[in-house]
Amino acid sequence: MTDALGLPMTVPAPGLPAHVTIYEVGARDGLQNEKGVVPVEVKAEFLGRLADAGLTTLEATSFVHPKWVPQLADAAELVKLLDRRPGVDYPVLVPNDRGLDRAIEAGLDHVAVFASATETFAGKNLNRTLDSQFAMFEPVVKRALDEGMSVRAYVSMAFGDPWEGAVDPAQVAAVGRRLVEMGCWQLSLGDTIGTGTPGHAEAVIDACVAAAVPVDQLAVHFHDTYGQALANTLAALRRGVTTVDASTGGLGGCPYAKSATGNLATEDLVWMLDGLGIEHGANLEALVGTSVWMAEQLGRPSPSRVVKALSGG
Ligand code: HMG
Ligand code: MG
């Protein structure tokens, strides 16, 4: 590792937060798009390694319809196998009441609903209209809160949609505002197909803030399809966002969005945060080791530049 050489050199820049929370989505977003189903024991070991690497928020899986996402049909079994660590949160995706029932049965405390900013993707991903998705989420959020759970919300297609093209930031903010009004504590802005650029990231964040979604309730979720994820993240940090979604090894995608590729790689994010002197709590060497191990399980190398550079791959 280059650590011993003092690299990356730490050079703080003004206008950035002192600490960033990494919201790790590798086990969920990362593995939902795999061609094959990753064995449940491998998933459990992946999550164990991520906790060992110091990550404290690990989105573990989804309680969605198993026919819609067969890759995560083993959600209940995975939760049973998990060696749940104190101080680590294991949120899961739940789209509806049935999903919430299953998350409660599994003994989980943190769930996330996932909305669409566009009509077409609401249909393709949720089998709902843009408007009727809220009727599906409302009872889920209410009951989860009554159960003492925390509920995060995503807004997908926040930066562009492969069927509809450009998406108005005001539309993203309006969808996000409704989810925050329901009681979701955090809103993650999803660049599902990775077409956003830094000025665009600022515009979407500004639109949310203008719609009365406080910046400290925002998170960003950039897929790296066009190589913009890290630049967009820096723009979001400058706007005051302090939670960044990332996927170890840069795994990821969405089975219902053509042209969605991997998420921002956690290792690439950590390299940048280290260079900027921003605290994050993760151990880069352990993350890279995990990605090298996972690449062996999946039979292909990690797309992360930092993993490649540090593993000699
Ligand atoms: P539907 O077909 O409209 O469901 O699908 P339904 O409500 O009509 O129910 C039909 C049957 O499915 C019923 O069974 C239900 O019990 C069952 P029957 O009575 O016919 O025997 N069912 C379920 N079974 C297990 N678990 C459940 C469940 N729900 C219903 N939760 C539904 C609607 C929302 C369920 C479906 O569209 C679905 O599962 N979609 C999930 C798609 C998905 O997971 N996409 C990937 C995640 S989103 C993403 O990746 C983007 C993100 O990363 C951010 C970004 O990048 O932008 C988050
Ligand atoms: Mg995603």
From TrEMBL:
Gene3D superfamilies associated with the record: Aldolase class I
Residue ranges constituting the Pyruvate carboxyltransferase domain according to the UniProt record: 20-288
GO molecular function terms noted in the UniProt entry: lyase activity
Top-level division of the source organism's lineage: Bacteria
Keyword Metal-binding attached: yes
Keywords noted in UniProt: Lyase, Metal-binding
Pfam families for this protein: HMGL-like
Family of this protein: Belongs to the HMG-CoA lyase family.
Protein's name in the database: Hydroxymethylglutaryl-CoA lyase
